[in-house]
Amino acid sequence: MDEVLTIEQAAARIKMSERYVRRLVAERRIPFHKLGRSVRLKASDLAAHIDAGRVEPITAADVWRGLGRAA
């Protein structure tokens, strides 16, 4: 079974503020579960959100390739 986190635990896990995590929930940018008035997040959903924001590094070849298109 996947670990279920509170807002506070999720914020601590990703080293961000609770306000940021609450904003993700309010904007529905991350899946969550509502238990009464409490909000819970699955650890796997939190990890998926972080992985979705991954940006790959740019290489010199990418820069030169991009310059050819800009001209």
From TrEMBL:
Domain of life: Bacteria
Residue span(s) of domain Helix-turn-helix: 4-52
InterPro entries, per the entry: HTH_17, SinI_DNA-bd
NCBIfam families, per database record: excise
Protein name from the UniProt record: Helix-turn-helix domain-containing protein
